[in-house]
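Chapter review: from sequence to fold.
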Amino acid sequence: MLNVDHINMAHLIIHSLANTLGLPLKDLYIRHRQSLAQVLSEIVKQGEVGAMLSHVAEVFEWNISSTGSSRNQGKSSVGQFIISQIRHLLPALAVRATQEAKPGLLQELAGCLSLRLRDILIDHFQHILAYLVFHYPQEEQEAVLDFIASTTDIHIQNIRRCSVQNQVNELILGLHDHRDAVLREFSRMRAIEQSNIAEYLAPRLLGILGFLDSKLVSSSTMYKDDEFFDIGCSAWDKLPVQHLGGLLEEVAVVVKPLVKERPQQMAPVLTNVLVEMPSIRPLLGICLSFLKTLPLHRSIKPS
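The token string follows.
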């Protein structure tokens, strides 16, 4: 049973902290959601997942009126809380369930949403994979993946093939902070498809662009070493630019660091971009200074 005295003390501390910082309670949780998800997954006891998360939702005022999402209509506050934070809660809880051989922890989480655990693990596999790649060595990753395969009764390679684009998107977000681990995972992923990394990522670049736009991630997240500059240039060389008309800003953000670092290699790409998307010119800024030194299409003027 949850300790009432501890709960009341937590309420007081959290309210006091929110008042001191001038933040709504829900915003306070969101600001520290990754750390809090880790703590919750470590301290929750089997049989108390629903009760604890219900208390957390109550303390941080995760109520129905706080969101207008039609997806959440009719959901309890704890249901809304879990849905909005499952990308952080599920991976951490999956690791603990694996380490302690307690699948019941995850079953309880699924029960809070009236969903099958099998479906949740498959639908959010990309979040679990990214979490493992960013924070755990290969041996511990494999243990969790084996646990997922056993729980879902689906071979892990088949699960991995179900959401490749989503997995790539989530891994890209951690490229700056976990570069080596992400590149190793890309190598493993492309080995499944029997292609090199550039060939593997090229057809998925459009999806990455759209995903980065939704996450408002800067180009500094993507390009931090020579290998990924090679990947980026190769991918853009194979990408059908004519289909990117609705992503001008995203294209500009991703193309600029590549042009600065690899002007000659990116010359054909930049030419193609300017021919197919002339309205992108104002967004390229300093990149245009490279135009005078690059071999360009006859229809493009360098100034």
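Two observations follow directly from the output. The radius of gyration is 23 Å. Residues 77-99 form the longest helix (23 residues).
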